[in-house]
Write a structure and sequence with these properties.
heterodimer, A: 498 residues, alpha+beta, Uridine Diphospho-n-acetylenolpyruvylglucosamine Reductase, domain 2, Uridine Diphospho-n-acetylenolpyruvylglucosamine Reductase, domain 3, Alpha-Beta Plaits, 4 domains, 9-stranded antiparallel sheet, 5-stranded antiparallel sheet, 17 helices, 20 strands, 34% helix, B: 419 residues, 3 domains, 15 helices, 18 strands
């Protein structure tokens, strides 16, 4: 795991640490420049805890002008910069480099404006995703994308990663809910893309920046659209005798014109594990269990739930429950949301994968995962955002056994390669970061990657902003690490992951 | 020799012709490689429904993609369709209709405006212009529905981004960047587009109301309600007569709000919406499914401007600014209508020259919006900026342009001088 190659350390920068710290203290409030190892320690990793590196320095700017001056200084002095929001990312996008200045955006933590007339919120980037909804919910509004870590992840980080959530089939990911950003480029240029209007003219730099994983600019302000909360939300809990039946049910629900707000499938192993863990009342004899949720007005939700029920029955559903109250609906979800901790009980360690596949390939991919599970002799449990084709296999292993860890990594890489093979993607919502960097050539050829790299060079000619992330350093497809959890403990055990 | 090179070596193209009409990607690659080598600028066209939008520019050759068409793969249950870029939008819609699906972004048909009859153009053109229709505020723009693409960059290299799955965060999202780039970055070859089920029914609440201020108020309240509208327009008095429909006896100014979904739910929401807006029965008409579709098609087709010779501008604003901007624009002789629930103004001017245009641009800019020149006289087109850009974004755009098309051979100058 520790063999991951990062950009070559610039020893001349390392040797000038004190001078750089002094210079930076001249730019921003000196107490916001951290250089003591004890102060730097909390920043050595993000949500991908398998990888750690102490940064050279940490700066905590308070204004966009400070961000601009820091970047300008680093650009002129060829110092690498790694931006960081809440540090909850699962692909290592904020992992420091030894010779980098880490820009911690934590002080950008205020909502600037709530504008109901234009139905948007203007906020600083380190406000949490959930805080936006909390700020507008008394007026019956909410912010739609809901990554599972929404209690802690920052909206700026959501923009950088183009975060999704369980409702992205109906409501889209961050990119579809974003109106504008203020961003600072590596040369210190401050600019705005988009704003409160629905579209901006010219090249869609807002779209380009979203999901660029901190490689193209540092986000200093975000404008998101807010939606009126749905009047009614209902869910159905359905058991199926086979994965194929569940998969067919998903396809038919969509073919019938119903777009659920969320549609989740768990396999038998995970259903049992989560039910034991959370007592959610799941059908543990079913080979696959599905939660289908609809939201909207009363008649609309009733019509869709009825349709979904008919389709489920036609597809041999072995059990079916429809939520009679909001409490019951939340209980349906409680087990699903406890999927990760439940796996932590089953094995000393597990690795969470994040691949995207065509919905119709679910049975095929799960069969392949099951074959690989036998081949590698490691148990696996599967959670699937069936609505949008995002698969999260949880591979169980024992990190104390080096052979087990190596097998787990190979197993994970094989799954992602298979996702790409059936027409899917390497990552649906966690980002590439350092975690899937070396697998990029499974999805793209040299020309595709070169085109992306020329864009990077156009905006950051010296490749100083978050280097070593997303794009492979060596052109090889090595098997690298995934989200690694030991003894059920992630770095932030209180943040939901699902 | 790679497979692609082998195929390319078998293509024999006549490079002396002025219009290239390729039928395969391999031919496109050969054409671009040749143009790259010889510095030959190319004008890129699909079905020419929107080719008059944008600046005039010098090009030696034309790349006509109208024969590069066809549906590659359509998976209704996976909610996507993969097509060649020159495929007529009409053909895609016919195919989607078979499965009761649609392109939810309902792009404008500019054929009526430019040629007096329908021409919804090619899908490549739709994506390159990124002009979305009335559902914009609910479902997003064209760019929000592009799952992935394949294209040929300015060096003749085939590149791709995205894929066919809806959730994909692998690498930069170039699908966004090529949407609305007016063919200046890459020649699109294949597009994978998200499709959605058609709503079971669509009905429209039409409020008889000639007053702009009231209309904006109605639209704002409707869009902020839980009735989930999917369209909101205002037509002033002079356009009311264009909407003679059985269910619509009224001929004056009107505000129309569309509600879509299962039948029961649509009726329930319409009812609630008229109550929330405190409307009396005599003030409203309800358009049933068929007439509702006719109404919104006419809006999408900009039919009220069908006989307009020139001077049509498209103005996008935050909703809160629309009223003030229109009041200021009324100092000129204008005819307009409002779409996107208040955020988009289509305005024609009796008179338009460089001075007036620059005044209008100033007004709109002050209100955080932008103006695009859609149809203007040739002399104005030659002297005015069609698109507006600030110096910082110009600099970035120049760099991005160069990263795709280093010798500026794709539609050079169509968007901005030097890009």
């Amino acid at each position: 795991m520790s063999s991951l190659q990062m950009p070559k350390v610039d020893n001349s920068i390392m040797s000038k640490k004190d001078k750089i710290a002094l210079d930076l203290r001249g730019i921003i409030n000196s107490k916001n420049v951290l250089s003591n190892p004890n102060e730097l320690r909390p920043f050595e990793t993000d949500g991908l805890t398998a990888y750690r590196k102490m940064p050279l320095l940490v700066v905590m700017p308070e204004t966009v002008e400070e961000v601009s001056q820091i970047l300008k200084y680093c650009n002129e002095n060829k110092i690498k910069v790694v931006p960081r929001g809440a540090g909850t990312g699962l692909s290592g996008g904020s992992m420091p480099l030894e010779d980098c200045v880490l820009i911690a955006m934590g002080k950008f933590n205020k909502i600037i404006e709530i504008d109901y007339e234009n139905r948007c919120v203007v906020t600083q980037p380190c406000v949490t995703n959930l805080a936006i909804t909390h700020a507008v919910q008394d007026k019956g509004f909410y912010y739609a994308p809901d990554p599972s870590s929404q209690i802690a992840c920052s909206i700026g980080g959501n923009v950088a990663e183009n975060s999704g959530g369980v409702h992205s089939l109906k409501y889209g990911a961050t990119t579809n809910n974003l109106l504008g950003i203020e961003v600072v480029l590596m040369d210190g240029t401050i600019t705005r893309f988009g704003g409160k209007a629905m579209d901006a003219e010219g090249y869609d730099f807002l779209g380009l920046m979203t999901g660029s994983e901190g490689l193209l600019g540092v986000i200093t302000e975000v404008t998101v659209k807010i939606l009126k909360s749905p009047e009614v939300v209902k869910a159905a809990l359905v058991g199926f005798p086979s994965i194929e039946d569940a998969g067919n049910c998903v396809a038919q629900i969509i073919a019938e014109g119903c777009i659920p707000a969320g549609m989740e499938i768990m396999d038998k192993a995970l259903t049992k594990a989560t039910n034991d863990y959370s007592k959610a009342g799941y059908p543990t004899d079913a080979e696959a269990m599905m939660i289908i949720e609809f939201d909207g007005t009363e008649h609309e939700v009733e019509a869709y739930i009825q349709k979904a029920k008919d389709i489920a029955e036609k597809n041999n559903s072995s059990s079916l429950k429809i939520s009679k109250s909001n409490e019951e609906r939340l209980k349906f979800w409680a087990g699903r949301k406890a999927a990760f901790p439940a796996c932590g009980v089953l094995a000393p360690d597990y690795m969470c994968m994040d691949g995207s596949i065509p919905r119709g390939k679910l049975a095929e991919v799960l069969n392949e995962i099951s074959r690989l599970s036998k081949k590698y002799n490691l148990p696996v449990a599967n959670a699937f955002h069936a609505g949008d084709g995002n698969l999260h296999p949880l591979i169980m292993f024992d990190a104390n056994d080096k052979n087990s860890l190596r097998k787990c990594e190979e197993f994970g890489a094989d799954i992602l390669k298979y996702c790409v093979k059936v027409g899917g993607a390497l990552t649906g919502e966690h980002g590439v970061g350092i975690e899937k960097r070396e697998l990029m050539c499974e999805a793209f050829n040299d020309k595709d990657i070169q085109q992306q790299l020329t864009i990077k060079v156009a905006l950051d000619p010296n490749s100083l902003l978050n280097p070593g992330k997303v794009y492979p350093i060596l052109r090889k497809c090595a098997e690298e690490g995934r989200v690694h959890v030991h003894g059920g403990k992630t770095k932030f055990p209180d943040i939901p992951r699902f | 020799m790679s497979m692609e090179e082998k195929q390319n070596s078998q293509i024999s193209l006549d490079f002396n012709q002025n219009i290239y009409k390729p039928t395969s990607r391999e031919e496109i690659v050969e054409i671009v490689k040749n143009c790259y080598k010889k510095n030959i600028p190319l004008e890129i066209n699909g079905l020419k429904s929107k080719n008059k939008i944008g600046r005039n520019f010098q090009s030696e050759k034309t790349l006509d993609l109208s024969d590069f068409k066809g549906i590659i793969d359509y998976k209704p249950e996976e909610l996507y369709i993969k097509v060649k870029a020159g495929t007529p939008l009409r053909e895609i819609i016919v195919e989607l209709n078979k499965n009761n699906q649609q392109l939810a972004f309902e792009p404008n048909d500019f054929g009526y405006l430019f040629s007096g009859e329908s021409n919804s153009g090619s899908i490549g053109g739709v994506v390159s212009c990124n002009f979305a229709g009335s559902r914009r505020f609910k479902v997003g723009s064209v760019r929000d529905h592009i799952l992935g693409f394949q294209g040929v960059n300015g060096k003749g290299e085939t590149i791709k981004s995205g894929g066919t799955v809806v959730k994909n965060v692998t690498g930069y999202d170039l699908s966004k960047l090529i949407s609305g780039s007016f063919g200046t970055l890459t020649i699109l070859t294949e597009l994978s587009i998200k499709v959605l089920p058609k709503p079971e029914t669509s009905k429209t609440l039409v409020i008889k109301n000639p007053h702009l201020k009231k209309a904006i108020d109605f639209l704002g309240k409707a869009l902020s309600s839980s009735t989930d509208p999917s369209g909101g327009v205002f037509y002033p008095d002079y356009f009311g007569k264009n909407f003679v429909l059985n269910d619509l006896t009224h001929e004056g100014g009107l505000t129309a709000i569309r509600i879509e979904g299962p039948i029961n739910s649509v009726d329930q929401r319409l009812n609630r919406l008229s109550k929330e807006l405190s409307l009396l029965d005599q003030e409203i008409s309800i358009l049933d499914n068929e007439q509702s579709n006719i109404f919104w098609n006419r809006t999408k087709n900009l039919e009220v401007f069908k006989s307009l010779k020139s001077n049509l501008l498209r103005v996008v604003l935050p909703i809160s600014e629309t009223l003030q901007v229109i009041q200021k624009l009324k100092n000129y002789e204008i005819k307009y209508f409002i779409d996107w629930g208040g955020s988009l103004i289509w305005a024609s001017f009796d008179q338009l020259n460089t001075k007036i245009l620059s005044e209008i641009k100033d007004i709109v800019k002050k209100h955080q919006g932008y103006v695009t020149l859609i149809k203007v006289e040739e002399d104005l087109k030659a002297s005015a900026d069609i698109f507006t850009i600030d110096p910082i974004k110009y600099k970035i755009s120049e760099k991005i342009k160069r990263s795709f098309d280093p010798k500026r051979i794709f539609n050079p100058g169509k968007m901005y001088t030097g890009i």
